[in-house]
């Protein structure tokens, strides 16, 4: 099949991609699918920011990642692109259930991430969902089994995991912990640990933070395996 050959080609390019020798400044210099490049172009995302240049190739290769870079440096695309690409290459469909889980500390940040996801992912076939406090859990339960990429706040995600017919995470490929320093500052450590305990151990985990600290290093040790560390950020 044509798509299989295309995916194979992408995988080979990712394997061979060497950020040290590549002069890749633009998203189109990366081995990304046509759909993602089109979605990025539509939103006028052309040139990568520093953290995107440093982290996207590492994430595309499937490594666990700890990325630290200050607020406003473009961390959202740095994890959304690898998430979308991973599921695309796995030929994910609605029948495969939840493929990626993205955890944000606040409703506001979760909503922003969800919006960027629906924008740059508009040419892909995945379903995206948002679970944040304030809406009826019952209402969300109907749709949640068909969601491929779920964005939400820690408490609400754990609440869904605890439901009798809750979130099925057995197929999960990628976990993203966004704004992890803020999650810890807001007292979500135990909730995050409980979520991570519920997830399949074989998965890719991407941890993003604006700052570095001892508690962040502790969270990384618990949630990441053999991870690469990129970025520059103040050490608290
Ligand atoms: P962070 O999570 O690091 O605080 P965001 O992902 O929220 O940063 O991005 C900050 C702003 O930069 C957003 O308005 C976003 O649209 C914009 N942005 C991110 N990446 C790019 C890019 N490659 N080109 C242009 N604008 C970008
Ligand atoms: Mg952010």
Describe this structure in words.
- Residues 25-53 form the DEAD-box RNA helicase Q domain.
- RNA helicase.
- Residues 56-230 form the Helicase ATP-binding domain.
- The chain is α/β, with parallel strands linked by helices.
- 44% of the residues lie in helices and 14% in strands.
- Strands 3-4-2-5-6-1-7 form a 7-stranded parallel sheet, sandwiched between helices.
- β3, α6 and β4 form a beta-alpha-beta unit.
- The model has no long low-confidence stretch (mean pLDDT 92).
- The site of adenosine-5'-diphosphate has 13 residues, from α4.
Main attributes of the structure:
single chain, 236 residues, alpha/beta, Rossmann fold, 7-stranded parallel sheet, 10 helices, 14% strand, binds adenosine-5'-diphosphate, binds magnesium ion
């Amino acid at each position: 099949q044509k798509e299989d050959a295309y995916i194979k080609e992408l995988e080979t390019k990712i394997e061979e991609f060497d950020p040290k020798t590549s002069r890749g400044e633009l998203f189109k210099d990366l081995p990304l699918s046509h759909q993602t490049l089109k979605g990025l172009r539509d939103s006028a995302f052309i040139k990568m920011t520093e953290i995107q240049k440093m982290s996207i190739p590492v994430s595309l290769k499937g490594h666990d990642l700890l990325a630290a870079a200050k607020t406003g440096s473009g961390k959202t695309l740095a994890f959304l692109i690898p998430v979308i690409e991973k599921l695309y290459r796995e030929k994910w469909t609605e029948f495969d259930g939840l493929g990626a889980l993205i955890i944000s500390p606040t409703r506001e940040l979760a909503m922003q991430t969800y919006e960027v996801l629906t924008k740059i992912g508009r040419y892909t076939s995945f379903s995206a969902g948002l679970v944040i406090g304030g809406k009826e859990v019952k209402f969300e339960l109907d749709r949640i089994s068909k969601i491929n990429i779920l964005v939400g706040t820690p408490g609400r995600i754990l609440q869904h995991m605890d439901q009798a017919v809750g979130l099925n995470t057995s197929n999960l490929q990628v976990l993203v912990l966004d704004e992890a320093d803020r999650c810890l500052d807001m007292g979500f450590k135990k909730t995050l640990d409980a979520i991570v305990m519920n997830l399949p151990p074989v998965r890719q985990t991407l941890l993003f933070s604006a700052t570095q600290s001892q508690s962040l290093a502790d969270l990384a040790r618990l949630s990441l395996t053999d991870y690469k560390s990129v970025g520059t950020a103040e050490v608290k």
